Amino acid sequence: MSSPDSGVKIPRERLPYSAIVDRPKRKLPGGARVVVWPIVNVEDWDINRPMPRVVIPAPTGIAVLPDIANWGWHEYGMRVGFWRMKQALDSRGIRASLSINGRVCESYPRVAQAALDAKWEFVGHNYIQVPLPRVEDQPEAIRQTIEAIERFAGYRPKGWMSPGFAQTMSTVDYLTAAGIRYICDWAVDDQPCDIATTHGPLVAMPYPIEVNDVVLMAVQHQRSEVLLERMRDTFDRLYAEGAEQPRVMGIALHPYLSGVPHRIKYLEQGLDYIRGHKDVLFWTGEQLLEWHTASAAAAK
C-alpha cells in the first residue's frame, strides 16, 4: 500500500523483489568477477549548525554552538586527510567517485579541483551536510547542488548520495526530475537495480553500509584495523560468488576518518589485497551505470 500521508509509493512498490539466484548471469568486461567502487565523501560542515557527527561529546552533555572541536575534526580531513587518501588511490591508479556537497566547490575549491584533475566522478551530496528531510525545499536543494557542481566541473552529476542516507518518500521523484540517473541511498543488492519513479527509472547502486568508515568508526567505534578486515572478508566472499554472478563491492570513505594517520595503512593494505587478485575492476559509479544499462538491456 502507498504511504498514507503523502500518496506516494513506498519502496517495495518502486523496487520489485528479485532473488539474485534467479537472475540471468550478467557479464563484466574481460570476464571480471567483481567491480570495486571506491566513494570518497567530502562535505561542508556549517559552523553555525550542530555538527553532523561528533568525536568529542559536548561539555556536561549540553550541546554548544559554535562546536569548534568537532568542526575541527572534519576540517582536519579536508586539510590533511583528503590528500593522504588521494595519494593512496592515485598511486594505485584508482579513480574514485567523489560524493560532494555542492558548497565544497566554493569553500574547498582546492579539494574539488584535485578530484577534477584526477578525473574522479562528481556525485551530488546535497548542497551542505544537512539531511534532506530537514531541508525546507528538496527540489531547490537538489537543483542548487547540481548547478554548483556543473559550474565547477563543467557537467551535471549523474549520481546522488543523500547525507546520512536520509530522504523522504518523494526524494527519488525529485531526483529523476532533476536529471539524476542513480542513487546511493538504496543499498539493497550486490548489483545495480532499477527503482520506479514518476520521471522514469532511477538506478539503485550497491553503496556500502558496512564497508563504510562512518559506520565502522563513528557509529560502531570499531578498532581501526577492522576496516581492513571488513574490506578483505567482503571481497573474498564477493570474489568467490562473482565466478557465477558478477558482484559490486563499494567502499565508502571520509577524509576525517580513513585519512587520519592511524587508519590510512589499513585502507592501503585493503586496496593492495584486492589488487592482488585477477578479474577485478575498479570503476566509478558512472561506469557502473553504463554497464548496468547495457547489460540489463542485453539480458532482457
Please describe the structure with a list of short key phrases separated by commas or semicolons:
300 residues, alpha/beta, TIM Barrel, four-stranded mixed β-sheet, disordered N terminus
> Which structural class do the helices and strands define?
alpha/beta
Largest sheet: 5 strands, parallel
The average pLDDT value, as a whole number, equals 95
Radius of gyration: 19 Å
Secondary structure tally: strands:
9
Report helical residue fraction.
Answer: 25-40%
SSE topology:
Elements: H1 11-14, E1 34-42, H2 68-90, E2 97-100, H3 104-107, H4 109-117, E3 121-124, H5 138-153, E4 159-160, H6 171-177, E5 182-183, E6 193-195, E7 202-204, H7 213-219, H8 226-241, E8 247-253, H9 264-275, E9 280-282, H10 285-299
Parallel strand pairs: 1-2, 1-8, 1-9, 2-3, 4-5, 5-7
Antiparallel strand pairs: 6-7
Summarize, please.
With 300 residues, this protein is of the alpha/beta class. It has one domain: Glycoside hydrolase/deacetylase (TIM Barrel).
